[in-house]
Amino acid sequence: MNYDELDKKIIEELIQDGRLSYVELAEKVGISRVAVKERIDNLKKDGVIEKFTVVINSEKFGKSVSAFFEVDVEPKQLQEVAKNLADNPTVASIYQMTGPSTLHMHVLVEDFKMLETFINSELYSVQGITRVECHVLLKRFKSRAGFKL
To answer: Residue 149 falls within a domain, yes or no?
Structure first.
């Protein structure tokens, strides 16, 4: 899969504003609307563009505490624990990391009391977890909304 500078330009514009119409995008990158649509369709088909979404400010919806967890899990239970945690609406994202069966998890909650409840009632009760380390976000400097090509 070879992607040229035009594909990269289209992606960069979409990262800035995923709501751009094909016409607006075509004007910005200097090709026709039909050509833009064809390129986006190909980028989606190739899996380069996974989906279009919106980035929500969680604080505006009352989720003012953002915490990151390193969760060590018994290897034979990793998939089950990951699925269990991924199904929890408090968990914003979860990834398997290098190391001895480690999951990296991002959680959004209303306040510190809810964080304590999540840890004690929902996290520690999951069988297979061997260690939990929590870090609370103080300030966000940059967030993943795509990356520079």
So the answer is: no
